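USER:
Class, as today's exercise, take the chain set out below, and explain how the chain folds.
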Amino acid sequence: MSSYNSNTIYINNRFVQEDQATISPLDTGFLFGDGLFETVRSDDAHPFLLDEHLVRLRQSLQTLAIPEPQNLKQSPDIITELLNKNQLNQVASVIKIVVSRGYSGPGSPDKTPPPTFLIKTSKLDLESIKRRHQGMRALILPWRRDQNHPLTTVKSLNYLENRYALRKAQESGFDEGIFLNQSGELCEGSFSNLFLIRDDSLLTPSLTSGLLPGITRNFILQTAKHLHLDCRETSLVMEDLKRCDGAFLTSSLMEIAPLLEIGKYKFDLKQTSKLQNILREAFKKKREQL
């Protein structure tokens, strides 16, 4: 008998055990990656920046012309119930929100099928996050991103390139891979956004470089403005790595993780720790307000 304890998930208006949940083999999310997802961190049952994640999800649904799920507005209540059912109220956890276009089987072509809507929760691996906070190593990926691709701002289920990039980075002994775009500009990581630090100023690739508008990235931009820190979205190239004092990566789960190196460029974490600690304190204060 398996010792696996199945969590409760929410799928298509029902709470079910995840080992009993089903999705049609004709679902376009399964067949083609035709859908979207959001990953949200929760600490002690307080999802961080959930509203911002839902705004991005709705914008992406409009971009892909996928109907909004009927119960998307109830996401906060659904998440609260899932965290309770799965005994995640007093720990750090991961919330995954997934929407696909849904069933693609035979039927009336003028009748839009309802989307598939799923929310799942799980415990966050804090040991993995702690290791990233001690410093990450990134390589420059050998192929280029198309900054003019119409779906760069969409966090789609067709995430294979990112997964492949991370695997290739890890096979080479690195923690993350950084994309360049076709113009040779720094873009983003396979699961993160990039910030450089130069003379107490924050620099991050602009959206026109062809990257996902990360929720944590935007929080740092807004926080820097509030704290009167110099923070700029701009075009960055490899030469800028030589001129910067440090760098860090951001994502919803790890928030801020310093970079020890990008390719051949190495950084002294002590040199930029003050600025990064200021930003970490902003995350802490925001969580306390939830």
Remarks:
- The chain has a mean pLDDT of 95.
- The first helix runs from residue 28 to 32.
- The longest strand covers residues 136-145.
- Helices lie at 28-32, 50-64, 75-85, 126-133, 160-171, 215-226, 238-243, 269-288.
